[in-house]
Amino acid sequence: MKIAVLGAGAMGCLYGGALAEAGHEVWLIDVWKQHVDTINKNGLKIEGVSGERIIKDIKATTKPEDVGKADLVIVFVKATLTGEAVKGSVTLIGDNTTFLTLQNGLGNIEKISEVAGRERVIAGVTAHGSTMLGPGHIRHAGQGDTSIGELDGEITERVKTLSGMFNEAGFHTYVVDNVIGMVWSKLMANIGINALTALTGLQNGQLLEFRETEELLELAVKEAAEVAEKKGIKLQCEDPVEYTKKVCKLTAANRSSMLQDVTNKRTTEIEVINGAIVREGENLGVPTPINKTLTNLISVIQKSYN
Question: A single GO BP annotation from the record (predicted)?
Fold first, then answer.
């Protein structure tokens, strides 16, 4: 299968690299020219929980038009850039192109659908963690399940095909009939982990080592769960707080994407994670003071970058 990975950050490289190893034609698309050039010259270096290796049979480019038509486009750009990135990649779309979003936050499905059409979009979540170490070099920091599904809950041949393909590439993948609930469930973990790690500099697992951060995690997730309930979202996790703590433990050594962003003075996804809960809460009449505080603090950090 010809696969284009839109956004070759740590997670895009992890999935793209493994799929290339499994024999697929994979193109990594990213704006970071040094990263792209390094991959094309030296291959993609992966280390961490899945072993150390250099993947040579993979292509990278800064120009989507270099790829041609893709069978599958996996969207891994930051959620704040989704709309712009997909609009700039319409040359990837052929008659049977499918888009898969495994991104964090809310709004990605809608932004992709506006450009490509909702019928092309499959959504999913993953519990894998990955860290960018440098151009062409990532660390696979944590493993977990991947779940994908059609937006309407139907179990189709294309989603079963993708699940099988991901399993063959080493990602333990399930097909689910409530992928929207899965996206919101993953959001719970992002709500509890990302902003707190970015503010404290702690690894995911360390949040549970301090009563103060554990309490804030619990309060932020409870607010988000109340918003989901009011909105009529059926979460896939029975206890969102315990689910978030489980994710902390499974990815204990991981430095969250938001912590990596703040460390490198990049724009974070705060507005589509905690900020999205604040906006949804306002619309539904659900108070979200903890998420408002976390959103404001991260926003101030972003504004203070030199």
Answer: pantothenate biosynthetic process
